[in-house]
Automatic annotation (TrEMBL):
<protein>
    <recommendedName>
        <fullName>E3 ubiquitin protein ligase</fullName>
        <ecNumber>2.3.2.27</ecNumber>
    </recommendedName>
</protein>
<keyword id="KW-1017">Isopeptide bond</keyword>
<keyword id="KW-0863">Zinc-finger</keyword>
<dbReference type="GO" id="GO:0006325">
    <property type="term" value="P:chromatin organization"/>
</dbReference>
<keyword id="KW-0175">Coiled coil</keyword>
<dbReference type="GO" id="GO:0005634">
    <property type="term" value="C:nucleus"/>
</dbReference>
<keyword id="KW-0832">Ubl conjugation</keyword>
<comment type="pathway">
    <text>Protein modification; protein ubiquitination.</text>
</comment>
<feature type="coiled-coil region">
    <location>
        <begin position="148"/>
        <end position="185"/>
    </location>
</feature>
<dbReference type="GO" id="GO:0016567">
    <property type="term" value="P:protein ubiquitination"/>
</dbReference>
<keyword id="KW-0597">Phosphoprotein</keyword>
<keyword id="KW-0539">Nucleus</keyword>
<feature type="domain" description="BRE1A/B-like">
    <location>
        <begin position="191"/>
        <end position="331"/>
    </location>
</feature>
<dbReference type="InterPro" id="IPR058642">
    <property type="entry name" value="BRE1A/B-like_dom"/>
</dbReference>
<keyword id="KW-0808">Transferase</keyword>
<keyword id="KW-0862">Zinc</keyword>
<keyword id="KW-0156">Chromatin regulator</keyword>
């Protein structure tokens, strides 16, 4: 819980310094020179920057020291837990061996009691010879001594195992107490000790580096957005200009087509009037050959001029369709 609080304080300090620097930049940009409030704010920013640097160094030192202590306590706690587990396993094995030894001791006690009963009862065949009875007694004594020796060995082994078991139980209790002490020390680790460790300082340095990198990336992102917006606006203005030019071209072509159509209609009227006049003159002056040839020549020239005007109209119409197709392509782009 202590590390996030320290980091939050550091972030608040950095954000405050950044806000003050931004305010100073705006004031300088607005005034164009440093006034007394600007110099005072600059001095305050410098003091804040030095204070943040000192705080960062202190946090790094404390984080390093506490990290070392924390790692040492964690290692001790881990080794204590491992030792407790090993002792528990050894204790279970010793308890199992002790139970086996007790069972074996009970069997040996029963065998010994049976042997003593056979020795003292005198029931070794009253009708047999003395040599046979002496041999039976010797064998019983040997068996008794063997059983007694084995019993003493088992008792010594059981005593040694019990002593080892008591020693292990004592070590287990000490390890458990040490483990509890380590847990208490780990929970009561002070915040200042954590702040003085090297790992904490490294984390603070990495945080500062990442924070400055994020500010740089944000600045680059803002610049990219501004460039994108400017490019978009320029593209829109270019499209507007193209559309305006297209409308102007269409208007000019439409005006030219209308003028050509009016001219064609007027020429047709003139041609019709000339034709009527020619027919009238031809009817009135059938004998005027030179005049007729001149009129035919005039009519032929007028027809040629009429065909030429029709060709111009068709060419302008084709040009209008091409311009409209090009405008459609530009609009799609």
């Amino acid at each position: 819980a202590f590390a996030p609080a320290a980091v939050a304080r550091l972030v608040q300090g950095l954000v405050g310094a950044q806000r003050r620097a931004h305010d100073l930049g705006q004031r300088l940009a607005a005034r164009g020179e440093l006034g007394e409030p600007g110099r005072a704010l600059l001095r305050e920013l410098l003091r804040e920057h030095r204070r943040l640097q000192d705080l960062n160094l202190q946090l790094q030192e404390q984080h390093h020291r506490v990290s070392l202590e924390l790692a040492e306590l964690q290692d001790k706690a881990s080794s204590a837990e491992t030792k407790v587990l090993e002792m528990g396993t050894t204790l279970e094995g010793l308890q199992w061996d002790s139970a086996k030894l007790r069972k074996r001791e009970g069997r040996l006690d029963r065998h010994l009691a049976e042997a003593l009963e056979q020795l003292t009862s005198g029931s070794y065949g009253s009708g047999s010879s003395g040599g046979f009875q002496g041999g039976q007694i010797t064998l019983s004594m040997q068996k008794f001594e063997m059983l007694n020796a084995e019993l003493e060995g088992n008792q010594d082994l059981a005593n040694s195992r019990m002593a080892e078991l008591e020693k292990l139980q004592l070590e287990l209790q000490q390890a458990v107490r040490g483990h509890e002490r380590l847990k208490v020390a780990l929970r009561s680790l002070p915040e200042e000790a954590v702040k003085e460790t090297l790992e904490y300082k490294v984390l603070q340095s990495q945080f500062s580096l990442l924070y400055h990198e994020s500010l740089q990336v944000k600045t680059q992102l803002d610049e990219a957005r501004a460039l994108l917006l400017a490019t978009k606006n320029s593209h829109l203005r270019h499209i507007e200009h193209m559309e305006s030019d297209e409308l102007g071209v269409q208007k000019r072509l439409r005006t030219e087509v209308i003028q050509l159509e009016d001219t064609l209609a007027q020429v047709r009227k003139e041609y019709e009037m000339l034709r009527i006049e020619f027919e009238q003159n031809l009817a009135a002056n059938e004998q005027a050959g030179p005049i007729n040839r001149e009129m035919r020549h005039l009519i032929s020239s007028l027809q040629n001029h009429n065909h030429q005007l029709k060709g111009d109209v068709q060419r302008y119409k084709r040009k209008l369709r091409e311009v409209q197709a090009e405008a459609g392509k530009l609009r799609l782009q």
